[in-house]
Each structure stands twice: as C-alpha cells, then as structure tokens.
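Open question from group meeting: does this chain pack into something compact, or does most of it stay loose? Before anyone orders reagents, we agreed to write out a predicted structure and look at it together. Recording both the input and the output here so the notebook holds the full record.
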Amino acid sequence: MFCQFRYFFALNDSLLSLLANKPSKLQELEFQIREEIQSLRQEQEQIRTELLGVQQQENWQNQMRISELEDRLTRLTQNYNRLQRRSLQLEQNQEDSDSPILVSPSENKPNRTNERGINRF
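Structure tokens returned:
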C-alpha cells in the first residue's frame, strides 16, 4: 500500500506540475498570438500608408497631366481660331481681288482708237 500511495503522490505531483505549466504555456501562446496580431497590424498599417502615398503621387501626376493637356488644348484652340480668322481674311481678300473693278474709260486710260476708229479701253 505504501507503494500505491507513493505512486499516487508521484502521479499527483506530475499532474500538478503539468496543470501548473499549462496556464503558463497557454499564457505564452496567448502572448505570442497577441505579438503576431500586433505585428500583422503594423504591417497592415505600413502597407496602407504606402498605398496611400502611391495613390496620392499618382493623383498628383494625373492632375499635372490634366493641367498640361488643358493648357495644350487652350493653345490649340487659340491657334485654330487664329488660323480660321486668317483663312477668312484670305478668302475675303480673294473675293475682293476676284470681283471686277468697275472703272470708267476716262479713269483708266485715255481713249485710243485703232486704225478702224474703234475705241479701245
């Protein structure tokens, strides 16, 4: 019987030590999981910050491109309008040069007659 008591106490001591160690192991695992979660949150925040930075940079570059394109469009529109006015002026000048100028013979040159006596202008 003494052996049985000894075995019982030895088993109890083993069980007690296992049970005593279990909370610390659980606490250790909990601590590790919390550290991992914290690490993942930090990585997530870093990635979020980087993505926001990239997005802001791309937005700024796109705004610059839009501004440049708007300026170019304004210049092209101004050039188009200037060329259109010039074209109208040239057409008007062409029409003016194509229209006959009515000048009386006395204003143009003196009357001349040919051998037959016909007035030439």
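Observations to bring back to the group:
The beta strands are 112-113, 119-120.
Helices lie at 2-98, 105-108.
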